[in-house]
Amino acid sequence: MKRRVVVTGIGAITPIGSGVDGLWDGIRRGHSAVTRVSRFDASAFRSQLAAEVSDFDGRDYVDAREARRLDRYALLALSAAVSAVDDAQLNLSTVRPWSVGVSMGSALGGVAFGEDQHTSYLTQGMKGVSPMLAIAVYGGASGANIALHMGLRGPNLAISNSCASGAIAIGEAFEIIRRRDADIVLAGGAEAPLAPLTYGAFSLIKAMSARNDDPAGACRPFDSQRDGFVMGEGAAVLVLEERDAALRRGARVYAEILGYAHTNDAYHMTAPRPDGSEAARAVCGSLRSAGLEPEQIGYVNAHATGTPLGDAAEVMALRGSLGAHASCVPVSGTKALYGHALGASGAIEAAIVALGLNRGFFPGTYNCDCQDSVPPIRILGKEGLYRKIGFALTTSFGFGGANAALIFGRGDT
Length: 413
What we know:
eleven-stranded mixed β-sheet, globular
């Protein structure tokens, strides 16, 4: 029999709060962190909004020397991992280092740091370039630095499937433990894309909201007036453990991962397949993986970035996979609060789902004043849902047609 996999620790660095309590307080507070970009001058761009992590200091998680050595992308990832291990009360010195793996997702890796270093090169030549550049820009830098910092010698995956990266990284970590390649995996996603050229590239293709006069209302999941996503940054890491071993050590269990699947649209680099068929197939695959029927899903945390095409395709995917149940299962899109952190979003939302199952509250959807899907799905209002449920689904989709679905169950079963 395949082994069961549970979530025993959560580390998060997000625009609405950091750590388990910070993230949860931000979700319950319900105030959007979206503002005008402050990291650089965005006045020349069509879109000028972002959700920034304004209070992050890596020295709260690692020593000052290591914090200086790492770029923001790797430091966000490492800080979230340190926070997750601490939250799990996991003493890594008591486990075999080769039994602990890392699986991290990112759409862009250290590209923003590379952009910054290119600017230094143009003004100062090679003497102005960091000697860390070559080992900072690639997507695997986050997981490599986590493994190096903690002495972990198990499998180490770097997933780069655009905005589905974090969810796929968690799903692949789930499979690693189930097939006995590791007993524990630190899994999640990290993204630090807020640099002018990187940001401007998404503004150029009109993927982001231009509602610059209304930052808090700019990200509008499922709303008829949505006009694009709002870029964010951050990281989230989950400690995944084989269930029996976690219970033997007395670990607190937030939730259990029950199902995972991913597919690809093979349709367009930036637009989803309009009928949502491949996204629906990912959801159906996760249900089969979990051994569940659609009617058993009690909550859906949707990818729901607020793009005109993406949200419409997701409604089709939910209806195609959940059937009639899609009209009554509570669905929320939470990115209006913390923006879209690209490859980290799926990990942040997995953390929210795990906490919701543990604490009996699921956040609602902000800025959805007029739902435009016909037939409609049940969009949770911003008051959220107070309910103990058994099973929850979270979806993630990305450029290039990447689709991923994860199913979580309560950890007390």
